[in-house]
Amino acid sequence: MAEGFVNFYIQRLDTLLLEEAESFSGFEDEVQRMMGMLREIGSFSAESGSTEETDAASWVRKLKDIINEMDDSVDGFIIQMDTHNGSEQKKLIDSFRHELQKTSSCLAETVLVHRTRELNSSIKGEKREDKNFHGMDEGETSASSSSSSKLQYKSLPYHLQICFAYCCIFPENYWINNGRLIRLFIAEGLIQGKAGEVIEDIAEENINELINLGMLQVVDHPGNGIKLVVPSHHREVCLHQIKEEEFQTACPNSDSSLPLTVRCVSIHSDMKQVESVLSKVRSRSLFLFGNRGSSEDDWNWLNLYGSKFLRVLDLEDSKIKHLPDEVGDLMHLRYLGLKHTDISELPGRLGNLRALQTLDIRRCGNLKAVPNEVLNLLRLRHFKMFKNIGIGGMSIPKGIGRIKSLQTLTGIYAGDGIARELGSLIQLRRLGVMDVNEDNVSEELFVSVMKMRELLCLSLQAKHAFHRGTLTLLESFIPPPLLRKLRLEGILERIPNWLGLMERLTCLRLGYSHLSENPAAVLQHLPNLKILSLWHAFDAKQIGKEFCRAGGFPKLEDLTIASHVLEEWTEIVEGAVPSLNFLRLRNCLRLRMLPEGLQFITTLKQLSLLPLLDDHEERLRPDGGEENYKIKHIPQVKFITMSAVNQIASHSRGVVKNEE
């Protein structure tokens, strides 16, 4: 474990020398010398295996304390240098140089202690190879689930241990969005970079490893990204371990005693606890869950020195109504999550957050535009937007093309010259544009997109897409070669020729396309398509076996069809959709019969019908329903009848009326 956190801190110092070059000017030699000692410690710490486990644990604990103290000193120095000048800065520089020398001495002493211990072990003839890294016998096992989970956690390499521990910040059974987790990992510095690889891809690899180990589980949540949850038995063990390591605290009481070294705090009640917590610790992350609102007094904690160390401030789903200017003083902040809050305006001082990597302002109150100051956020990687009031793109300032670090830019309005400017962001990997129409952005937008050779995900939504707005696609458009996910919202005159050539495409949504031709005739040949949503995409009263031939959609796992027009789906050819796991029929209000041949799709795990006509429910019943043979092989069949939907709607209207 020592090797892991030592290497992570070396990476952090290396990054700071680049990003805070002005603050560290004159200290380069001292920092490099200290990094050299850390590399030496990292080279032998993984091999440490003394039979005196208490000595080894004490050595690791001391090493972690040294690094944590150094981390506080470094962050504190940067904070104070930013708020002082002249002779005061000279005093700070002298004090920090003394801190670096003190840390170097402590590290040298740590190296000496290790070498002495190794020498004593050698004299005693101890064989460290008989023990594994954690000091457990190779064949040691336990019958209990808790012991098994503990062994699995301890056997993880350090980079996975800290990622998994971070997942346990969230409340029990909380559904964690995969993309959110990736962005948080990066903001916290939990991902170790590799030459030639994008750091977001490395973070995703870590998550996939934890999924494969069963320590994270994928929750079925179609159409809204991958959701993850931590299994309760793994979470219990992890919480015990990270409490011992003082990695975080969850839901602290107002009178609870917090160790000064705690690095992550999650509060599950309201903001009134924040001031009490941050007056005691220098936390790097702050999460609010279950918050019931805020007043101006609730933000007094922003003036505390401890708040200035925050790298993550995640207020998602809280009910805060305003964001004070003082947020702009959190100079170490890398992640600001404001999704689903009641904020309607962003402070101009937000532009002072020079380290910010993620700004998530989706569905924020009545927020319609972002201030010009966001153009100062030159390290911003993920800028996610979506207006809460009125379906349409967020207005962004001209000059967005100067932020060359951007990887994600979603929910934007690309008129007023922004479409052309997007052509400068050739490094983008995710782009979402709304209010696309022929008059203002269409041609310029597609020309810009074609320059984005690294683009993985593209979402284009027509103006008034849900009310028969037309999405005009450029005839000469050639999709970026790496594109994996595509979303098109709005009426399409026809299926574009290039769509059938997208061999890398894994996820596709056609929304409100109202095509007269069957899109599956083209789409079934896409070799890697796994998720397909046809949401009012095809205006046909009847679908037959022509929907998909035998062997069509070879890798499709998830199919969603929504249609107010569809009355009959007569047949599915045997051998079609051979990999299908999930079939969802949504808003098919006229569909009265499931297709013949459904019984041959043996891979199906779930059939979802919402809503289901009442008489159709009778035909699907296991006790004599004439269509039950089509679905009896499916492990999970979910539905809500039309009468139940009407009853729920009636009850909701009654509640609203009573409230009025």
Q: State the total count of DSSP E strands.
A: 22
Q: State the shape.
A: globular
Q: Provide mean pLDDT, rounded.
A: 86
Task: Specify Rg, calculated over alpha carbons.
Answer: 28 Å
Bin the helical content.
25-40%
Percentage of residues in DSSP E strands? 5-15%
First-to-last CA distance: 59 Å
Low-confidence stretches: 126-143, 655-660
Please explain how this structure is put together.
The chain is of the alpha/beta class and 660 residues long. It is 32% helix and 15% strand. It has helices spanning 2-19, 28-45, 53-83, 87-124, 145-155, 158-167, 178-188, 199-212, 232-244, 272-278, 418-421, 442-450, 520-523, 614-620, 642-659; strands at 176-177, 217-219, 227-229, 248-250, 264-267, 285-288, 312-314, 335-337, 358-362, 382-386, 408-413, 430-436, 457-462, 485-489, 507-511, 531-535, 542-543, 558-562, 568-569, 582-586, 606-612, 636-641. The strands form 3 sheets. It has a 17-stranded parallel sheet, with helices on both faces. A 3-stranded antiparallel sheet has the order 1-3-2. Strands 17-19 form a two-stranded parallel ribbon. Helix 2 (28-45) packs parallel to helix 4, helix 5 (145-155) packs across helix 9 and helix 6 packs across helix 8. The termini are far apart.
